[in-house]
Write a structure and sequence with these properties.
alpha/beta; OB fold (Dihydrolipoamide Acetyltransferase, E2P); Rossmann fold; 7-stranded parallel β-sheet; 6-stranded parallel β-sheet; 22 helices; binds adenosine-5'-diphosphate; binds magnesium ion; 3'-5' DNA helicase activity; DNA binding
C-alpha cells in the first residue's frame, strides 16, 4: 500500500483531524462529527455492524435466478436510456466471462454508465433475476478488479448508515487509513493480551473492518470488546478497592431504633422499602463505607427509606447531608423528611441558594459545631464554608445530575469516608447494572405504596386529537392541571415533529386561548426553569408545555393529565417517567400518548407502556428492543459508549473482571503501563477515581 501522506507533506497519525484527509467534504465531516468521529483514530474505531459476504464467485453460466450472487466479468458494452412512460433513467450493461453472458440493469443512476467502460474487469454482486431476454443482475454492486477490493469479492464491512454516510463511502475512507492503526497505543498491556490470547490492536482494527475470514472478524471484535470490558472493570475495581480500604464511618445497626421508626410511620412500609432499608442499614454498619444506589420510580418511597438511614445516623451521633439537583426538589425532600422525622426529635435544616445570609450563617454554625444532625439542600451544600462536625451519611438524589467532582466535594467534608446513598428514578435493568455500576451495590423498589391508582394510559389515534383536548378542558374545568411534553424545543421541518415552542403558541392562541398556558424548555436559565416549574406547582398555570427537561421528581399533586407528543421518539422507560409526573395526588390521572407515524413495532412499544406500570420492566424492554444505547439511565450514568462490547455478555464480563483483579493485585496504581492510566480518564464521569 502507498504511504499515507498528503501533498502538503503532513504526516498522518491517528490523532490527525479528518478535515486534513483528502476527499472528505464539509458535509461528510459534519455527519461524521455528529457520530463523534473527528480524527483518524475515531474513524478507525468506527466498527462495522456486520460483513457482507461476496467472496464466492459464480461463473456466469451457472448463475441462478432469484439468488444474490457474485460474478467476475468483463464489460462488453454499456448504455443509458430513458423510459418513455415514467421517464426513468436506465443503465444497461452486457457482461461476459469465459462461460457466458449476463446482463445488468440499474435504475435512476445514470452516472454509472461512465464507470462501465467496455473491456473493464468487474466483480458484480447482487440479485439475479430471470427476464425474457435471459438472466439479469438487478441493481448490482460492482467494483473494478485489482487495486484493493473494498466492496465486492470479499467480506465487506457494513456500517451503521446515518446522516448520509454510506458503507461504500466509509469503506473508501477507512481502508486506506488502516496502516495508521499501527500508531495507536494499545490500551491492553501485552501481558494481558498474551494471557487472554488476543491479537494486537492494530491487527484487530484492520481485521474488524476488512477481515481475512469470519473467524478473524469475530476474534478481532472479541479483542476490542475485551479491551472495553477490561478497562471498565479496571476502573470499577479500582474505585471499589479504594473505597473499601478507606476508613469509613461505622453506623451501628440498632434494631430497636429501626423498629421504633417503622412504628412511628403513618403507613406500613412496602416489602421493597423494608428490604432496601435493611440492606442500607447493614451496609452502614460495615467497616468499609457504603456505596449504594436506591432505584425506584418517582413516588415509590425512596425518601422514606433514606429517612430511616438518617435516623440511624442520628442515633450513632453523626450527621447526614441530603443533596438534590434543584431547589424545588430540595424543598420537597425537606418537607417529606420533616414530616417523617418529627416524631424522632429530628428537624432537618434546609440550605439552598436563596437561603438568606443570616439564616445561612446560623445553619453553618449549627452544622459545624454538631448541634444539628440533618441538612437538606442543593449545590449550596458543597460550598467551601459548609463544614460538618461529623458527617457520616451522604444522600444524593438523582446523582447523575451532579458531576463526580461535586459528589466528591460533599463526601470529603468528613475526615473519614462517609456512607454514600444515591437515589434515582431512572432505573437501569439489573442485567445491565452488573456491568454499568461496577463498584455500586443496588437496591430496588419495585412496587408503589398501596392506594396509588395507576395512571390510565392510552395511545390516542390522530383523529381523536380534538376529543383529547376536550378531555383536558374538562379536567381543567375541575381545577386540575395538565402537562404537554414535546420531543423538541423548536420546529424542525425535516423531522415533522411537534416542538414545544410551536405547540405552546398553538395551544395558547388557538386551542386553549382562554386557559393559562406556560412553557418550559432546556434553553431557559436554570433559574427561569425552576421559577416556571414552581409557578405551575403552585397552580399559577393550567397547562405546562415542556420538553423532556421537565423535572423528574417534582410533585404537582393537582396535575392529572400528561400528553406526550411524538411518543414514538422516546424510550419506554422515559415515557414511564413522564407519566410519573401525574397520579401523585388523590385524583385519578391520565397519560395520553400521541404518535407521529407508527409501524407495527412502534405500536407494540406504545401498547407496552399503556399496559405495563413497572419502570424496571419497561427499562428491560427498552434494552431488548433497542439495545443498551437506548436505556435512559445508562446514558445518564455517563458510561463511555461501548463499540464492540456487549454489556449483557456476562461471561466476557467475568473474564475481564478477573483479568482486571489480577492486574490490580500486581499494579494497584497503574504505574506499570502508561496507556492504562490514560484510559482511566474516560471513566471519571462514572466512578470516583483519583
Ligand atoms: P420517592 O422519593 O421515591 O419519589 P417518596 O419517598 O417521596 O417517594 O414518597 C412519595 C410519597 O409516598 C410521600 O408522600 C411518602 O410519604 C409516601 N409514602 C412513602 N412510603 C409509603 C408507604 N409505604 N405507604 C404509603 N405512603 C408512602
Ligand atoms: Mg424523590
Amino acid at each position: 500500500m502507498a504511504p499515507v501522506t498528503r501533498p502538503a507533506s503532513t504526516v498522518l497519525t491517528p490523532s490527525t483531524s479528518l478535515s486534513a484527509i483528502a476527499g472528505i467534504g464539509t458535509e461528510k465531516l459534519r455527519a461524521l462529527d455528529k457520530l463523534g468521529i473527528a480524527t483518524v483514530h475515531d474513524l478507525l474505531y468506527h466498527l462495522p455492524r456486520r460483513h457482507e459476504d461476496s467472496r464466492m464467485v459464480t461463473p456466469v453460466a451457472r448463475l441462478r435466478a432469484g439468488e444474490v450472487q457474485t460474478s467476475r466479468v468483463r464489460v462488453r458494452n454499456a448504455g443509458r436510456r430513458v423510459t418513455a412512460k415514467k421517464r426513468m433513467v436506465i443503465v444497461e450493461a452486457s457482461l461476459v466471462d469465459d462461460s457466458g453472458v449476463v446482463s445488468a440493469v440499474w435504475f435512476n443512476q445514470g452516472f454509472l454508465v461512465n464507470q462501465l467502460r467496455g473491456g473493464l474487469e468487474l466483480m458484480v454482486h447482487g440479485k439475479v433475476e430471470s427476464e425474457r431476454t435471459g438472466l439479469v443482475f438487478r441493481n448490482p454492486k460492482f467494483e473494478p478488479v485489482g487495486g484493493g477490493q473494498r466492496d465486492v469479492g470479499l467480506l465487506a464491512p457494513v456500517y451503521r448508515e446515518t446522516n448520509g454516510l454510506t458503507s461504500k463511502f466509509l469503506r473508501s475512507k477507512i481502508e486506506p487509513l488502516l496502516p495508521l492503526a499501527a500508531g495507536i497505543a494499545d490500551r491492553l498491556p501485552p501481558q494481558v493480551r498474551h494471557a487472554e490470547g488476543l491479537m494486537p490492536i492494530a491487527r484487530a482494527i484492520a481485521q474488524a473492518h476488512f477481515p481475512d475470514d469470519e473467524e478473524s472478524a469475530s476474534r478481532a471484535r472479541e479483542r476490542i470488546a475485551f479491551e472495553e470490558m477490561f478497562l471498565l472493570q479496571l476502573a470499577a475495581q479500582r474505585a471499589r478497592r479504594r473505597r473499601l480500604s478507606s476508613a469509613g464511618v461505622v453506623i451501628p445497626y440498632d434494631v430497636a431504633t429501626a423498629r421504633a421508626f417503622v412504628q412511628s410511620l403513618p403507613f406500613p412500609l412496602t416489602d421493597g422499602q423494608r428490604a432496601a432499608a435493611h440492606e442500607i442499614l447493614r451496609d452502614m454498619a460495615d467497616s468499609g463505607p457504603m456505596n449504594r444506589l436506591l432505584q425506584g420510580d418517582v413516588g415509590s418511597g425512596k425518601t422514606a427509606v433514606a429517612a430511616m438511614a438518617a435516623v440511624m445516623s442520628h442515633r450513632a451521633g453523626v450527621q447526614t447531608a441530603v443533596m438534590a439537583p434543584t431547589e424545588i426538589l430540595a424543598r420537597q425532600h425537606h418537607a417529606t423528611l420533616s414530616a417523617l422525622l418529627d416524631a424522632h426529635g429530628l428537624a432537618p435544616r434546609l440550605l439552598v441558594g436563596s437561603t438568606p445570609a443570616r439564616a445561612r450563617r446560623e445553619i453553618l454554625e449549627a452544622m459545624a459545631n454538631g448541634r444539628e444532625t440533618l441538612l437538606v439542600g442543593t449545590h449550596a451544600l458543597i460550598e467551601d464554608d459548609v463544614v460538618f462536625s461529623d458527617l457520616g451519611l451522604v444522600v444524593v438524589d438523582e446523582q447523575h445530575r451532579f458531576g463526580v467532582a461535586q459528589r466528591q466535594r460533599l463526601r470529603r467534608k468528613s475526615d473519614l469516608t462517609p456512607n454514600f446513598l444515591a437515589m434515582t428514578a431512572t432505573p437501569i435493568p439489573r442485567s445491565l447494572s452488573l456491568t454499568a455500576y461496577g463498584d455500586v451495590n443496588v437496591s430496588e423498589l419495585h412496587e408503589m405504596p398501596p392506594g396509588r391508582q395507576p395512571v390510565a394510559t392510552r395511545v390516542v389515534p390522530p383523529h381523536q386529537r380534538d376529543e383529547a383536548y376536550a378531555f383536558i378542558r374538562e379536567q381543567v374545568g375541575q381545577r386540575r392541571q395538565a402537562f404537554v411534553i414535546c420531543p423538541l424545543i423548536e420546529e424542525n421541518d425535516k423531522l415533522g415533529v411537534r416542538s414545544a415552542t410551536a405547540e405552546y403558541e398553538r395551544l395558547r392562541t388557538q386551542v386553549f386561548a382562554d386557559l393559562r398556558v406556560e412553557l418550559l424548555h432546556g434553553r431557559l436559565s436554570a433559574r427561569d426553569k425552576e421559577e416556571r416549574m414552581a409557578a405551575f406547582a403552585q397552580g399559577h398555570a393550567d397547562i405546562l408545555v415542556a420538553t423532556s427537561v421537565i423535572e423528574v421528581g417534582v410533585d404537582v399533586p393537582n396535575a392529572t393529565v400528561i400528553v406526550i407528543e411524538g411518543a414514538e421518539r422516546f424510550g419506554l422507560a422515559q415515557l414511564h417517567q413522564f407519566r410519573g409526573r401525574v397520579g401523585r395526588g388523590q385524583h385519578r390521572s391520565f397519560c395520553l400518548l400521541f404518535a407521529g407515524s407508527l409501524d407495527d413495532e412502534g405500536s407494540h412499544r406504545l401498547d407496552m407502556v399503556a399496559t405495563t406500570h413497572d419502570g424496571f420492566e419497561l427499562a428491560e424492554a427498552d434494552l431488548r428492543l433497542r439495545g443498551p444505547g437506548d436505556v435512559a439511565g445508562l446514558r445518564q450514568h455517563g458510561l463511555p459508549e461501548m463499540l464492540a462490547a456487549d454489556l449483557l455478555d456476562v461471561a466476557m464480563l467475568q473474564r475481564a473482571r478477573t483479568a482486571a483483579q489480577r492486574w490490580l493485585d500486581v499494579d494497584p496504581n497503574l504505574t506499570g503501563y502508561e496507556p492504562l492510566r490514560e484510559a482511566m480518564h474516560g471513566y471519571r464521569a462514572v466512578f470516583d477515581l483519583d
